[in-house]
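> example.struct
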C-alpha cells in the first residue's frame, strides 16, 4: 500500500526553463504593437487571424532552424490558455503565479512557451542529425489522417467537404494550414527520435537501469488492523485474530519455501537444466524455474484468498516502487530480502500485518497509471527517461539566437491587443 503513487505520464519531460524569461522591455515593440493594432482592426473586417501581422517574422533560431512569430504566438497563446484552465483568467500579469510562486504570471507563460518552442526545435535538430526527420509529405499525411478522424468518416481520406471543415476549424483557431503541418511534423519527429534513441535498449538494460535508480518489486499478504476506510484501529480481539492468521500463513509459506529450496538443491545437484529435461508439451523443462513458479503460485493463492490490501485489484502482480514510496516497515523488510522470491516474516506496520515476497524486477512491472488510465510499466518509464535525458542534454547544447525584442514581451499589452 503506497503512501503515494505518482501518476506517471507517458510523455517526455520538457527542457529546463530558459533563464531571464520574465524581464520586460517596455520599449519593445512600440512599432510591433502598433502593427498589431492595425492588424487587429483589419482582422475585424477580414476575419483574418489577429496574429497574422508578423506571421513570417523570425523570432529566433535554434541551431539555425527558424521559429516564426506565428508559431511563437501559438505557443504563447496555448500556454496562456493552459495556465488559465488551471487558475482562471489572468487579470494581473505581474502577480505571482499560484503554482510557481517565485515567478509572475507573465514569467510563467513566457517560460512555458519558450520551453515548448525550444523542445520541438531541439527534436528537429536531433532528427536532422540522425537522418530520421519525417518528410513534409509524411507530416501532411499525418495531419490529414487526424483531420479525417475529427471531421470525416475515418476512411483515411479527406473529401472536399471534410477539408472545408478542417479549414474552418483552423481559421477559427487562428492557425494557418502551414503551421498545423509544422505541428504534425513535430509530433512525428518526436516519435521518430524516441524510437531512434531507445531501439537498442533491451530488457536487461531496463532492469539494470531501474536497479541503479533504487527500484524494488514485491507483493504481499496484508491483514488489516485498521478500518480500510477510516483508518481507525480495529478492536483488540479482531487484531489478535489477524495476528494468529498471519502466523498460520507464515507457517504455510515457510513450509512451501523449504520445499522450493529442496527442489532447487536437487536440481542443482543433478545438473538438470532447460537443456536436459523435456515436458510432455515438448517445451524444455527447467526444474529450478518450475520450483520457483510453484512457490510463487502458492503465495498468490494465499494472497488472493486472505489479503485485505485495497490495492490488490489494481496491482495483482505486486508493486514496483522507489525508496520512500511505501510505508517504512514494508520498505525496510523488502530491502532486506533476496530479490529472487525472498520471503519475509510477519511485518507489522500502521496498516496491519504483512507477509512479503520480494520479486525480481520485471520490465513489464506496472508502476501506476497515466492520466488516461493506462498502465505505465517499468519499461515505459525507463525508455521515457532515456529519451528525456537525451533531449535535455541536446537542449543544453543547441544555440538559441533571439531577434531583438522577441525573447521578452509585455504579454498584458500583447493579449490586450490581439485577444
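> example.seq
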Amino acid at each position: 500500500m503506497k503512501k503515494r503513487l505518482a501518476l506517471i505520464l507517458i510523455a517526455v519531460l520538457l527542457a529546463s526553463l530558459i533563464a531571464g524569461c520574465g524581464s520586460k522591455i517596455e520599449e519593445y515593440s512600440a512599432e510591433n504593437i502598433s502593427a498589431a493594432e492595425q492588424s487587429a482592426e483589419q482582422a475585424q473586417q477580414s476575419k483574418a487571424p489577429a496574429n497574422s501581422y508578423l506571421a513570417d517574422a523570425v523570432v529566433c533560431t535554434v541551431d539555425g532552424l527558424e521559429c516564426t512569430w506565428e508559431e511563437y504566438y501559438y505557443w504563447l497563446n496555448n500556454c496562456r490558455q493552459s495556465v488559465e484552465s488551471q487558475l482562471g483568467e489572468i487579470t494581473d500579469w505581474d502577480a505571482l503565479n499560484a503554482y510557481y510562486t517565485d515567478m509572475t504570471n507573465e514569467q510563467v507563460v513566457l517560460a512555458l512557451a519558450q520551453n515548448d518552442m525550444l523542445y520541438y526545435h531541439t527534436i528537429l535538430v536531433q532528427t536532422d542529425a540522425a537522418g530520421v526527420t519525417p518528410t513534409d509529405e509524411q507530416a501532411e499525411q499525418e495531419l490529414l489522417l487526424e483531420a479525417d478522424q475529427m471531421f470525416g468518416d475515418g476512411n483515411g481520406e479527406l473529401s472536399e467537404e471534410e477539408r472545408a471543415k478542417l479549414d474552418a476549424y483552423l481559421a477559427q483557431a487562428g492557425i494557418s494550414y502551414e503551421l498545423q503541418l509544422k505541428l504534425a511534423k513535430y509530433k512525428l519527429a518526436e516519435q521518430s527520435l524516441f524510437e531512434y534513441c531507445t531501439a537498442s535498449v533491451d530488457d536487461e538494460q531496463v532492469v539494470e537501469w531501474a536497479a541503479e535508480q533504487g527500484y524494488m518489486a514485491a507483493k504481499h499478504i496484508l491483514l488489516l488492523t485498521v478500518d480500510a476506510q477510516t483508518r481507525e484501529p480495529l478492536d483488540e480481539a479482531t487484531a489478535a485474530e489477524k495476528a494468529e492468521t498471519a502466523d498460520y500463513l507464515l507457517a504455510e509459506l515457510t513450509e512451501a519455501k523449504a520445499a522450493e529450496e529442496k527442489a532447487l538443491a536437487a536440481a542443482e545437484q543433478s545438473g538438470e537444466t532447460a537443456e536436459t529435461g523435456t515436458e510432455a508439451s515438448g517445451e524444455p523443462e527447467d526444474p529450478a524455474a518450475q520450483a520457483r513458479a510453484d512457490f510463487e503460485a502458492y503465495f498468490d493463492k494465499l494472497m488472493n484468498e486472505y489479503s485485505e490490501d485495497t490495492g490488490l485489484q489494481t496491482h495483482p502482480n505486486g508493486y514496483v516502487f522507489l525508496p520512500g514510496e511505501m510505508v517504512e516497515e514494508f520498505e525496510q523488510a523488502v530491502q532486506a530480502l533476496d530479490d529472487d522470491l525472498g520471503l519475509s516474516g510477519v511485518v507489522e506496520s500502521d496498516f496491519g500485518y504483512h507477509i512479503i515476497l520480494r520479486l525480481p524486477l520485471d520490465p513489464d512491472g506496472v508502476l501506476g497509471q497515466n492520466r488516461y488510465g493506462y498502465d505505465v510499466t517499468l519499461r515505459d518509464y525507463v525508455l521515457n527517461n532515456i529519451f528525456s535525458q537525451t533531449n535535455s542534454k541536446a537542449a543544453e547544447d543547441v544555440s538559441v539566437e533571439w531577434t531583438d525584442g522577441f525573447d521578452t514581451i509585455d504579454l498584458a499589452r500583447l493579449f490586450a491587443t490581439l485577444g
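> remarks
Residues 1-53, 273-280 have pLDDT under 50 and may be disordered.
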